[in-house]
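Write out the 3D structure for:
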Amino acid sequence: MKVVCVGGGPAGLYLAILLKRQHPAHDITVHERDPEGSTYGWGVTYWRALLDRLHEHDPESARAIEQSSVRWNQGVAHVRDRVTRQHGDEGHGIGRHRLLEILAERARSLGVRLQFESEVTAADLPGADLVVAADGVHSALRTRHADHFGTQLGEGRNHYLWLGTTKVFDAFTFAFVETAHGWIWCYGYGYSGEHSTCVMECSPETLTGLGLDRTDEGKGLALLEKLFAGILDGHPLIAGRGAPWPTFRTLTNRTWHRDNLVLLGDAAHTTHYSIGAGTTLALEDAMCLAAALGEHATLPAALAAYGRQRRSELLSAQSAARCSAQWYENLPRYIHLPPHRMFALLGQRHSPLLPYVPPQLYYGIDKAAGRLEVLRRFKRWVGPRAARALHARSTAHRS
């Protein structure tokens, strides 16, 4: 089979690896419009469950990813001058540049052709049996057929900024700072022995009140360094590329394929960065698509099965992402709780029930559920049903 993958991010590269492992005779080319090594972004996060799946699918690249990752098993929340620290599941961080380097090297070793600085349009794809649109949220291949795919974009309220820093955090760090114009906060996590990612977020009122929407980059970074001096310990913030202070765009598609064209990763879906699942979901897309292509006798059947399975599997993550984004959009509802309670509800922000239950009451129920099996069962039973009901309501509202 001749496969053309447009987009050299984690999803496209990993799919190429898996397909080559399945059938070395596949003719696979990955086109990436940017120069090699010029990736945007800082570090990405993932959890142990993904690493286990990577070892199952391609042990060689999984070992390299694990060896290049940093780990943490604690979360720290700074609220004003108070600090709360809690143990949690083991998390991992790896530089996006390093992750792509590992996947590109592995793909090449298997015989995949990688063409960088290669801008591809539909007219450039004659003779391909399968065309994979892995070209991100602004996918040109998907946009050409947006009506067929049923593409919808939802705009978040808060603004964010993706930054790096030479401060290496020893835990997944949250910091909430109160200003005269409202709250501003950051998520910080290490991804190497030298750098961490810092994602800043605030409401539109805080953004304009602080002047961050109109100040130049240097002055903006200086102000953020002053506001978050308590966690940066004198280390600088480092700007990346891209538009400053956008709002997050949640993308969904009604169907994921058209003829021999299939969507992968951010071209198919996005989930709010606050759940730290973007890279994981993109790699899982690649695993699912590769498996479907191996299990079904015809391409249409494989692509249809892939789309059905992934759209179903994503419902839980998409619900969690919506709830997480809304938690931050409604931060004043939680920020004045005692720090340990606020941090506990920060950890519960994925719950579709939390917005409808008074925070103090929810905290008490959640604490009791940790001791009583009947309450744990009730939460497990009602949570998914509430998520499905809210998803159905939002879908009906959009249509």
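The CA atoms of residues 2 and 27 lie 5 Å apart.
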